[in-house]
Each structure stands twice: as C-alpha cells, then as structure tokens.
C-alpha cells in the first residue's frame, strides 16, 4: 500500500497500526486545535481532521495517506480531556468510578496522491464510540491509581491497557477504540478503497 503517515505522537496508535501490519511514518501535528462543537463525536472528528490536514498540507501530490486521530472520554455528555494536575486526575477518576462512560475516537484519512492537481485530496472522517463500565473504587484506590502517574497524559485520566484494567468491569464496542484507534474500522475504510495492508 501507499506509505501511511501518522499525524500523532501516540505510541499506542503506532502500536495498533503495527499490530495489523501497517508501518507508518510518525509526523505529529502541532496545529492549534479549534473546537466549534460540544458534541463528543463531532469534536473528535473535527480535531482528527485538523491534525490530518495539517500534515497532509506538507505532502500534497505525494502517494501517501495521512491518518489523524483524536480521542476523548465523555461522562454525562461532558468531555473529559487530559488532566491538568493530580487533583484534576483524581476528580476525573472519581467521576468515572462505579458507572459507565463513553470513549470517542475520531479518525481522518487524507489520500494525498489523488486529485492533487486541484490542490485537494479525498478525505474520509468518522468516529467510533465505545461504552466502558468501571467498578466502584474507594478514594484510596483512586489516589493510589493517580499516584502511578499513568493517568497524566491520557484523556479521561486513565489507560484501559494499563493498571486501570483492574477496575474495568466491561465494555460495549471496540476495545482498541478506547486505547486510541479503532484500527479495525481504519482497515475496513482502506479496504473499501481497494488499499491492501
């Protein structure tokens, strides 16, 4: 297949792509993120598109596919980003414990090698939603988890593939979506365009 560029520094997204046999070049986008919606699914699609198009702009006409992605956690429809500090992380985990919440990942694929003469490239943008149910946690358990420092760079202040797995009761939807990339859906979208990986 054409070379894929991952417009993200996430080691988790890179690992998921490698898992299915895609070895992307990593070129993180540092675009200033602009959000015009408060609806989680729309927000992640917007942000993934901004990241993908930022990097795609550097590769117009080249036979590459740029993948941008963004993940948010939402509880009661309100988006939880990455925690600002320890107290913020504790607040978020307390909000999630003992109940269900949703994880949204938006993905944008920009096909740079196509229609380059018009300076536009075909773009696919979609999102996946996964429901995550968390066991009840004591204040002590919440603080002990936060003190592992694992939550600090993660949306919603937890990583399902890390120590937080001890508190995950179950999920409805794509597990990889919670990790940071619905890689199955990405492969399906590439397959629809006849791209083998």
Give your account of this protein's structure.
By secondary structure, the chain is α/β, with parallel strands linked by helices. It has a single domain, classed as Maf protein, CATH 3.90.950. It contains six helices and seven strands. It has helices spanning 11-19, 40-56, 86-96, 139-146, 175-179, 183-192; strands at residues 3-6, 25-26, 64-75, 78-80, 100-111, 123-134, 168-172. Strands 1, 2, 3, 4, 5, 6 and 7 form a seven-stranded mixed sheet that branches.
Relevant terms:
197 residues; alpha/beta; Maf protein; seven-stranded mixed sheet; 6 helices; 30% helix; elongated
Total strand segments: 7
Gyration radius (Cα, Å) is 17 Å
Helix content: 25-40%
Please provide the ordered H/E string of secondary-structure elements.
Answer: EHEHEEHEEHEHH
Shape by Cα distribution: elongated
First-residue to last-residue Cα separation: 6 Å
Q: Into how many domains do the coordinates divide?
A: 1
Task: Note the main sheet.
Answer: 7 strands, mixed
Q: Count of helical segments? A: 6
Strand content: 25-35%
Q: What is the arithmetic mean of pLDDT?
A: 94
CATH architecture: Alpha-Beta Complex
Overall CATH class: Alpha Beta
The CATH topology name reads Maf protein
């Amino acid at each position: 297949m054409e070379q894929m560029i991952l417009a993200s520094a996430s080691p988790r997204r890179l690992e998921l792509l490698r898992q299915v046999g895609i070895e992307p070049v990593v070129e993180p986008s540092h675009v200033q993120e602009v959000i015009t919606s408060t609806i989680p699914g729309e927000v992640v699609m917007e942000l993934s598109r901004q990241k993908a198009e930022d990097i795609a702009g550097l590769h117009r006409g080249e036979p590459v596919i740029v993948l941008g992605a963004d993940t948010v956690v939402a509880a009661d429809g309100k988006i939880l980003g990455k925690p600002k500090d320890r107290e913020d992380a504790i607040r978020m985990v307390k909000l999630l414990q003992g109940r269900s919440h949703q994880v949204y990942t938006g993905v944008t694929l920009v096909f740079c090698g196509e229609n380059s003469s018009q300076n536009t490239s075909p773009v696919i943008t979609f999102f996946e939603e996964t429901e995550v149910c968390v066991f009840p946690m004591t204040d002590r358990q919440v603080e002990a988890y936060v003190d592992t420092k694992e939550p600090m760079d993660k949306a919603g202040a937890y990583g399902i593939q890390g120590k937080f797995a001890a508190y995950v009761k179950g999920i409805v939807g794509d597990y990889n979506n919670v990790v940071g990339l619905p890689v199955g859906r990405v492969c399906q979208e590439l397959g629809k365009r006849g791209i083998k990986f």
